[in-house]
Predict the 3D structure of the following.
Amino acid sequence: MNKQRLLSGHETELLTNEELQKASKDLVMYKSGLVRILPDGWLYPAIATRYLDRIYNMELRSDDVLIMTFPKCGTTWMQEILWAMIRNPDLDPSNEEIKEPLWVRSLDVGIDMLFDNYKLAKNGMNSIAEKFSRVCPGKKKEDGMAIQIVENQPSPRVIKTHFPLDLLHKDLLKKCKVVYVARNPKDMMVSFYHYIRVAKGGSYQGSLEKFAREVMRGEIPYCPYWPHVLQAWRQRDNPNLYFTTYEDMKDDIMGELRKVNKFLGKNLTEEQLKKIAEFTSFSSMKTRGEPIDKAFYIEDIWQKEGGMFRKGIKGDWKNHFSPKLNQEMDQWISDNVKDTGLNFKFGN
Ligand code: A3P
């Protein structure tokens, strides 16, 4: 089926063979192709359309917390913070769940769409598949492993999503809480470029400049970037959405933890927050290891440059951008933030 109307009201449009061939020069393709979701033009593996309505209609609980981000903006960091605050605030090492990788403890509800990829289909999701067969006996994988695990998860849940607000239920912010983390688009770009090279599902071969232009034109899965961030930014005064940035977290993690603590109504002590700050520091998280299955990565790039934990710094774009790319990005940024009141910090 070429076109489909989603419960969110969006219309889907499969990319044509011609478009796919153009897109596939540097991207390993998904078996089902790619789909564009209109009007914003969200681009995903086409199999996403199998799960999107179920995700839209997922039964939300009042104590659910969603961590929502455009990829590479600080998801894993905030995810571990939220998970610790909500499910293990004393960092009890005997907590049974902590033995699971983060991506199983706090699932990306849409992650099944990635495993439609030729290179990931085989082993890229073993820990999720194992959990699925354990907690969802008799259920069908094809209906989405992540969403079905999440439906069975005990409360309070910490759910991850890279889908934007408008693809989720229209009453989302009336029913539960969302923490949105944005990151300055220059550092996002460097981090995203690394990720699309190291992830088997990406295996991107082109240059950073080529990639950045494709992201700016919305031609890479998960794009476009701006509507994603701006939809959340416009909700920044909604009491059920906490909008923050990677840069603010880097500048003052304790300040951020206090704000999140208040937002969640957790009443954790300063001592607990301090320990959570240490537990979720870049070096602690990197030492504990990848939050996802290693089979997800291309081994040699992962060895040399890291996987989910690469550098964890601000301003790394300065080490990678040519003056020309920087100029193009500045233009793209100023065109898109105009009249929005959104400002990013770009320094180190
Ligand atoms: P870099 O590639 O710039 O190093 P996401 O989790 O959304 O995929 O974002 C990944 C980015 O967050 C990577 O950025 C990664 O290094 C950084 N990151 C992950 N955990 C972090 C932490 N605890 N502190 C700071 N940065 C972290």
Notes: DSSP finds 16 helices and eight strands in the chain. Residues 186 and 326 are 8 Å apart (CA to CA). Residues 69, 71-77, 187, 191, 194, 280-282, 285, 308-312, 316 surround adenosine-3'-5'-diphosphate (CB under 6 Å).
